[in-house]
Structure formats: C-alpha cells, structure tokens
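As a warm-up, study this chain.
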Amino acid sequence: MKPFSEYFAQARPVYEFRIRLAGCEFDKSARSSMESALAPYVVDKISTARRLPITEHAEFPGMGPCEVHVVEVAVKYPVVSDQVRQAVAHKLNISPRQVLVRTLAEDANHEPVAEPKKAKDGSVLTNPELDAVEGQSLVGKSRIDSMLKELETRKHEFAAKGDHAAEQKDTPNTASPVGSHQNTIPSPKGR
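Now compare it with the structure written out below.
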C-alpha cells in the first residue's frame, strides 16, 4: 500500500520545464519577469540560473557563439511548452528564437548530435569500412554488362505446355460470357 504522501503528490501534479535562454542576461529583473510571465500557471518553483559556456549551441542555430542560461521551472497548472516559450519571450522582450522550452522528460531524451568530423580534403566520409568497398563493381558499365550476361543465361519456363494450348484452341466458344444465362424469376404466388 502506498503512503498518503504519494497519493497526495499524484493528485496534485507539478509540470516541470527546463528553459534555455540564449544571448541575454538573466539577472534579478529577468527572474521576476519570468515569474510574472508564468504567474497564470501558478509557479511552484524557479531554480537559480545556470550559465553554460560561450560556444555555438545546436539548439540555437544561426546565433553563433553565445551565452546560454538554463532555468528549471515547475508550475501547478498544465501548460504546453510553446505557451511557456511565448510567455517568457514576451515578458523578457526577446525573440522566441532565443528561448527553448522542454519538459524534463523531453530534455532527458534529447541527445545532442555530434557533427561528423571533416577530413583534410573537406569530405565528411568518416567510415573507413566504406573506403574498402569497390563501388565501381556495383555501378557503371561493368555492372550493366554483368546484368545482361545474367539475363542471357536464365532459362525461361512457361506454365502452359503445348498440349493445353492446343486444347484451348480446338474448343468452339458458343456461349457469350455476358448475358448468356437468364435468371429464373420466382412466382409471386408460390408453388
């Protein structure tokens, strides 16, 4: 049996979000603006902002190297990530492109994809197994010639032998396939 505190926690769910703000300062005034933006959803808690190093972030393409602040927020009323994003961007007077809002579950499942390293010649081919495969044997003129040879060597077998074909030609076709049989109309009086 569950303790009462678990039942109570399930009866009053808390919706947690992780908000990332790019290219803006997150000070006390920004924190109070964020609290007022989320006030309609009854703010349960707002964590202190963590500052990430100044680098190019995959979440904010086109921003270049910028400073990102991460804030965790919990609200009591259900709300969608886009609503939180729009409200925070409006109150902080920044572009919605500079705000990224995810639930904690989404953020845990999101793995940043590492960009493939480029070779000295600028190619993105990093898999050494692909270098070992001889590609010209699979495409091009030599493959066409080998396919034609394969097709020539195949024997074609037909389903109908000569006997069955002759039988079909000898039988006269007297009945029309359409309308050759009259449906019997039942008597309305019965029999």
